[in-house]
Request: fold
Amino acid sequence: MVHTRRGLIALTLMIAGGIGLGITLHLTADPPESTSKAPSEVAGRPYRRIVSLSPSITECLFALGLGDRVVGVTNYCDYPPEALTRSKVGGYYDLNLEAIMALRPDLVVCMPEHADHLSDLERLDLSHLTVDHRKVATILESLTTLGRVCGEPERAKVLVQDIRQRMTNVQKRVLDGRRPSVLVCVGRNMGSATIDEVYVAGNGGFYDEIISLAGGMNAYRGQGALAFPVITGEGLLRLKPEIIIDMVADLPESGLTEADVRKQWDSLPDMPAVKHGRVFLFTDDFVVVPGPRFIQILEKMAAVIHPEGIES
Reply:
């Protein structure tokens, strides 16, 4: 049902599923200090052969200037372009442990979603770090942690400060405005001529947080903790969103054009967002990767929710 490969990445990465939170560090592979010490006490280890197990982790590592140390990435890591030249170690749930071992990594960086694989990494005596990218705060925390652990704390500090300043700039422009209701769509059957069923941003998830920071209110106010509930066309009409943001990264993969997608939404003419021409297609690759480029998602979303408050 998800429309593109990147759409699949978004759902895979962001669905919480009750797996562990926060950041944990497990160090083996002949560390210079005792493995019983806390992360801050083993900071600065000169890791030189790092394997990344998600696109957002890969983006973090390159953003911190650690790209030359990255020797392995997943099949889905394609940003920055240099990541495409690194050896592939499989997908999220079908990791190729032999490929990882062949790269002789001194650090494997994981997501909470990789919890089932941690025992395999420990059995193979591989050092591993788990970072959480399901919230803005934990994305920033992961940048700080990766910078500290890999010996680039100042670079991480500068990067986080820059992102925080850009967040502050957005907040200054949207805080005093009215909060329109915003529906974020992250996947559906793109082969249909109409809008039948849609995965939307649920309550408490990554996009829900970005909507709020951008000066909007999530149109979905359903019960439960589903990160991406499925809503029918009839259900969408009941939500009455004033703004629709359709995450259609890598649109060419679906064989459709932006005009085709807009025509699908036109099948719901009574929806306020459609009626008033406030359906926006976000086709950039970063809109479905909850990594350091989340700031671009925030700025882009704020610009369409509050165009009157964003400087050109």
Observations:
- Confidence is low (pLDDT under 50) at residues 13-44.
- The first strand starts at residue 24 and ends at 26.
- The first helix runs from residue 5 to 14.
- The chain has two domains: 5-168, 176-309.
